Amino acid sequence: MAVGFHNLNSSYGLKKLDEYLLPRSYITGYQASKDDIAVHAEFFAPPLADYVNVFRWYNHIEALLRMSGVSGEGQGLKVEGSSSISEEAPASPPIADTKI
Description:
Number of helices: 3
Helix content: 25-40%
Distance between the termini: 41 Å
Shape: globular
Oligomer: single chain
Order of helices and strands: HHH
């Protein structure tokens, strides 16, 4: 799935992201990923509470980043109108067959 966002620091960009996050907890997939860090890094300041879904998502990612000690700054990641963000889920390691 390719996702693209335009100027997240404008009301237009925030509205589009808010609509996108309405049925989702994360930018892609079912857990926080590099996509969430990349989008989070694009914010100059925390979003207004008027954008309920963005506000919820931003605060959740902010808490995860604080707990992990990871910073979205300095990653060199960009979110632009013509670029897309996509990530394949990593393959699960095989489970060993154990008998008790």
